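## Example pair
The file below holds two records. Each record gives the amino-acid sequence first, followed by its C-alpha coordinate line.
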Amino acid sequence: QVQLVESGGGLVQPGGSLRLSCAASGSVSSFNTMSWYRQAPGKQRDLVAAITTGGSTNYADSVKGRFTISRDNARNTVYLQMNSLKPEDTAVYYCKYSDVYPYRRDYWGQGTQVTVSS
Protein backbone atom coordinates (compact mmCIF):
# COMPACT_ATOMS: atom_id res chain seq x y z
CA GLN A 1 0.00 0.00 0.00
CA VAL A 2 1.05 3.57 -0.68
CA GLN A 3 -0.37 6.51 1.22
CA LEU A 4 -0.47 10.01 -0.26
CA VAL A 5 -0.84 13.24 1.70
CA GLU A 6 -1.47 16.45 -0.21
CA SER A 7 -1.12 20.01 0.97
CA GLY A 8 -0.94 23.55 -0.35
CA GLY A 9 -4.36 24.28 -1.77
CA GLY A 10 -6.33 27.41 -1.03
CA LEU A 11 -7.85 30.60 -2.37
CA VAL A 12 -5.80 32.83 -4.65
CA GLN A 13 -6.54 35.78 -6.88
CA PRO A 14 -6.22 35.53 -10.67
CA GLY A 15 -2.60 35.91 -11.67
CA GLY A 16 -1.41 34.56 -8.35
CA SER A 17 0.61 31.47 -7.47
CA LEU A 18 0.25 28.37 -5.34
CA ARG A 19 2.47 25.38 -4.66
CA LEU A 20 0.98 21.97 -4.05
CA SER A 21 2.86 19.14 -2.34
CA CYS A 22 2.16 15.43 -2.19
CA ALA A 23 4.16 13.08 0.02
CA ALA A 24 4.09 9.34 -0.59
CA SER A 25 4.76 6.76 2.12
CA GLY A 26 4.48 3.01 2.53
CA SER A 27 5.63 0.54 -0.13
CA VAL A 28 6.97 3.14 -2.56
CA SER A 29 8.80 1.68 -5.54
CA SER A 30 12.13 3.07 -6.74
CA PHE A 31 10.57 3.44 -10.19
CA ASN A 32 7.24 5.20 -10.27
CA THR A 33 5.28 8.01 -11.80
CA MET A 34 3.61 10.70 -9.72
CA SER A 35 0.96 12.90 -11.24
CA TRP A 36 -1.45 15.70 -10.53
CA TYR A 37 -5.01 15.55 -11.79
CA ARG A 38 -7.82 18.00 -11.29
CA GLN A 39 -11.58 17.82 -11.28
CA ALA A 40 -13.90 20.79 -11.52
CA PRO A 41 -17.57 20.49 -10.48
CA GLY A 42 -19.54 18.56 -13.07
CA LYS A 43 -16.46 17.67 -15.09
CA GLN A 44 -14.25 14.63 -15.44
CA ARG A 45 -10.91 14.26 -13.69
CA ASP A 46 -8.13 15.27 -16.07
CA LEU A 47 -4.35 14.97 -16.03
CA VAL A 48 -2.53 18.20 -15.22
CA ALA A 49 1.08 17.02 -15.09
CA ALA A 50 3.13 13.90 -14.47
CA ILE A 51 6.75 13.14 -13.60
CA THR A 52 8.72 9.90 -13.45
CA THR A 53 11.45 9.04 -10.97
CA GLY A 54 13.88 9.74 -13.83
CA GLY A 55 12.52 13.27 -14.21
CA SER A 56 10.57 12.93 -17.45
CA THR A 57 7.56 15.23 -17.44
CA ASN A 58 4.26 15.58 -19.24
CA TYR A 59 1.82 18.51 -19.09
CA ALA A 60 -1.69 19.27 -20.20
CA ASP A 61 -1.70 21.91 -22.94
CA SER A 62 -3.81 24.19 -20.76
CA VAL A 63 -1.07 24.54 -18.13
CA LYS A 64 2.12 24.49 -20.21
CA GLY A 65 4.27 27.50 -19.44
CA ARG A 66 2.38 28.24 -16.21
CA PHE A 67 2.70 25.09 -14.08
CA THR A 68 5.85 23.19 -13.19
CA ILE A 69 5.95 19.70 -11.74
CA SER A 70 9.00 18.55 -9.80
CA ARG A 71 9.91 15.89 -7.29
CA ASP A 72 12.29 15.02 -4.48
CA ASN A 73 12.94 11.30 -4.78
CA ALA A 74 14.69 11.14 -1.40
CA ARG A 75 11.49 12.43 0.25
CA ASN A 76 9.08 10.65 -2.14
CA THR A 77 7.42 14.01 -2.63
CA VAL A 78 6.05 15.67 -5.75
CA TYR A 79 5.34 19.36 -6.15
CA LEU A 80 3.19 21.41 -8.48
CA GLN A 81 4.16 25.05 -8.79
CA MET A 82 1.23 26.93 -10.27
CA ASN A 83 1.80 30.43 -11.59
CA SER A 84 -0.40 32.89 -13.48
CA LEU A 85 -3.47 31.15 -12.13
CA LYS A 86 -6.78 31.63 -13.91
CA PRO A 87 -10.36 31.16 -12.67
CA GLU A 88 -10.61 28.11 -14.93
CA ASP A 89 -7.86 26.45 -12.87
CA THR A 90 -10.35 26.20 -10.01
CA ALA A 91 -10.78 22.52 -9.13
CA VAL A 92 -9.98 19.83 -6.63
CA TYR A 93 -6.42 18.72 -7.32
CA TYR A 94 -5.54 15.07 -6.76
CA CYS A 95 -2.15 13.45 -6.46
CA LYS A 96 -1.71 10.02 -8.05
CA TYR A 97 1.04 7.44 -7.58
CA SER A 98 1.60 4.70 -10.17
CA ASP A 99 4.08 1.88 -10.59
CA VAL A 100 4.10 -1.22 -12.79
CA TYR A 101 6.40 -3.79 -11.17
CA PRO A 102 5.64 -6.50 -10.34
CA TYR A 103 2.12 -5.42 -11.28
CA ARG A 104 0.29 -2.18 -12.01
CA ARG A 105 -0.65 -0.19 -8.90
CA ASP A 106 -2.41 3.16 -8.70
CA TYR A 107 -3.11 5.17 -5.57
CA TRP A 108 -4.87 8.50 -5.14
CA GLY A 109 -4.62 11.23 -2.57
CA GLN A 110 -7.62 12.76 -0.86
CA GLY A 111 -7.58 15.92 -2.97
CA THR A 112 -6.96 19.56 -2.18
CA GLN A 113 -9.17 22.47 -3.26
CA VAL A 114 -7.71 25.24 -5.38
CA THR A 115 -9.95 28.25 -5.92
CA VAL A 116 -8.92 31.12 -8.19
CA SER A 117 -11.19 34.09 -7.64
CA SER A 118 -11.09 37.81 -7.02
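Second record, same layout:
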Amino acid sequence: QVQLVESGGGLVQAGDSLRLSCVPSGRTLSPFTMGWFRQAPGKEREIVAEVKWIGGDTFSATSKKDRFTISVSVIKNTLYLQMNNLKPEDTAVYYCAAHRPSVVEYEYWGQGTQVTVSS
Protein backbone atom coordinates (compact mmCIF):
# COMPACT_ATOMS: atom_id res chain seq x y z
CA GLN A 1 0.00 0.00 0.00
CA VAL A 2 1.23 3.48 -0.89
CA GLN A 3 -0.07 6.59 0.81
CA LEU A 4 0.30 9.80 -1.15
CA VAL A 5 0.18 13.18 0.52
CA GLU A 6 -0.37 16.30 -1.60
CA SER A 7 0.20 19.89 -0.60
CA GLY A 8 0.51 23.32 -2.17
CA GLY A 9 -3.00 24.10 -3.32
CA GLY A 10 -4.76 27.34 -2.58
CA LEU A 11 -6.57 30.41 -3.86
CA VAL A 12 -4.67 32.47 -6.43
CA GLN A 13 -5.41 35.05 -9.06
CA ALA A 14 -5.32 34.51 -12.78
CA GLY A 15 -1.75 34.71 -14.04
CA ASP A 16 -0.22 33.49 -10.79
CA SER A 17 1.84 30.34 -10.33
CA LEU A 18 1.58 27.46 -7.87
CA ARG A 19 3.67 24.42 -7.16
CA LEU A 20 2.01 21.29 -5.88
CA SER A 21 3.95 18.62 -4.02
CA CYS A 22 3.30 14.95 -3.46
CA VAL A 23 5.18 12.68 -1.08
CA PRO A 24 4.72 8.89 -0.96
CA SER A 25 4.57 8.03 2.71
CA GLY A 26 7.12 5.42 3.70
CA ARG A 27 8.11 4.58 0.13
CA THR A 28 10.42 5.88 -2.55
CA LEU A 29 9.08 7.31 -5.77
CA SER A 30 10.75 4.60 -7.83
CA PRO A 31 9.75 2.31 -9.38
CA PHE A 32 6.25 3.76 -9.59
CA THR A 33 4.68 5.68 -12.42
CA MET A 34 3.44 8.89 -10.84
CA GLY A 35 0.85 11.27 -12.16
CA TRP A 36 -1.12 14.41 -11.48
CA PHE A 37 -4.84 14.46 -12.22
CA ARG A 38 -7.48 17.08 -11.73
CA GLN A 39 -11.23 17.15 -11.46
CA ALA A 40 -13.27 20.29 -11.84
CA PRO A 41 -16.86 20.54 -10.59
CA GLY A 42 -19.20 18.71 -12.92
CA LYS A 43 -16.38 17.40 -15.07
CA GLU A 44 -14.59 14.09 -15.40
CA ARG A 45 -11.19 13.58 -13.90
CA GLU A 46 -8.39 14.19 -16.38
CA ILE A 47 -4.70 13.50 -16.35
CA VAL A 48 -2.45 16.54 -16.26
CA ALA A 49 1.03 15.03 -16.35
CA GLU A 50 2.93 11.90 -15.44
CA VAL A 51 6.43 10.54 -14.89
CA LYS A 52 7.56 7.00 -15.57
CA TRP A 53 10.49 5.42 -13.81
CA ILE A 54 13.14 4.37 -16.31
CA GLY A 55 15.77 3.01 -13.97
CA GLY A 56 18.07 4.13 -11.18
CA ASP A 57 17.12 7.73 -10.37
CA THR A 58 15.85 8.51 -13.86
CA PHE A 59 12.25 9.33 -14.72
CA SER A 60 10.66 10.27 -18.04
CA ALA A 61 8.17 13.15 -17.79
CA THR A 62 5.15 13.91 -19.93
CA SER A 63 2.89 16.94 -19.52
CA LYS A 64 -0.56 17.16 -21.06
CA LYS A 65 -0.85 20.90 -20.34
CA ASP A 66 1.53 23.41 -21.84
CA ARG A 67 1.66 25.64 -18.75
CA PHE A 68 2.27 22.76 -16.37
CA THR A 69 5.55 20.99 -15.65
CA ILE A 70 5.91 17.76 -13.72
CA SER A 71 9.19 16.94 -12.02
CA VAL A 72 10.77 14.67 -9.46
CA SER A 73 13.27 15.29 -6.70
CA VAL A 74 14.85 11.96 -5.87
CA ILE A 75 16.76 13.52 -2.99
CA LYS A 76 13.58 14.87 -1.43
CA ASN A 77 11.51 11.90 -2.63
CA THR A 78 8.91 14.35 -3.84
CA LEU A 79 6.82 14.74 -6.97
CA TYR A 80 6.03 18.28 -8.10
CA LEU A 81 3.63 20.00 -10.44
CA GLN A 82 4.64 23.52 -11.38
CA MET A 83 1.66 25.45 -12.71
CA ASN A 84 2.27 28.79 -14.40
CA ASN A 85 -0.02 31.49 -15.75
CA LEU A 86 -3.00 29.94 -14.04
CA LYS A 87 -6.43 30.51 -15.48
CA PRO A 88 -9.89 30.26 -13.89
CA GLU A 89 -10.51 27.09 -15.91
CA ASP A 90 -7.63 25.47 -14.00
CA THR A 91 -9.79 25.53 -10.87
CA ALA A 92 -10.12 21.94 -9.69
CA VAL A 93 -9.12 19.42 -7.08
CA TYR A 94 -5.68 18.12 -8.02
CA TYR A 95 -4.73 14.55 -7.18
CA CYS A 96 -1.43 12.77 -7.04
CA ALA A 97 -1.58 9.12 -8.10
CA ALA A 98 0.73 6.18 -8.62
CA HIS A 99 0.85 2.68 -10.02
CA ARG A 100 3.37 -0.10 -10.19
CA PRO A 101 5.16 -0.68 -13.49
CA SER A 102 3.41 -4.05 -13.83
CA VAL A 103 -0.03 -2.43 -13.60
CA VAL A 104 -1.76 -0.36 -16.28
CA GLU A 105 -4.20 1.67 -14.22
CA TYR A 106 -3.40 4.02 -11.38
CA GLU A 107 -3.74 2.18 -8.06
CA TYR A 108 -2.94 4.68 -5.35
CA TRP A 109 -4.45 8.13 -4.88
CA GLY A 110 -3.86 11.06 -2.61
CA GLN A 111 -6.64 12.92 -0.87
CA GLY A 112 -6.47 15.83 -3.31
CA THR A 113 -5.63 19.49 -2.94
CA GLN A 114 -7.92 22.31 -4.03
CA VAL A 115 -6.67 24.88 -6.51
CA THR A 116 -8.92 27.87 -7.06
CA VAL A 117 -8.05 30.55 -9.62
CA SER A 118 -9.99 33.80 -9.47
CA SER A 119 -10.36 36.07 -12.48
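Notes on the second record: Residues 41 and 92 are 7 Å apart (CA to CA). The mean pLDDT is 95.
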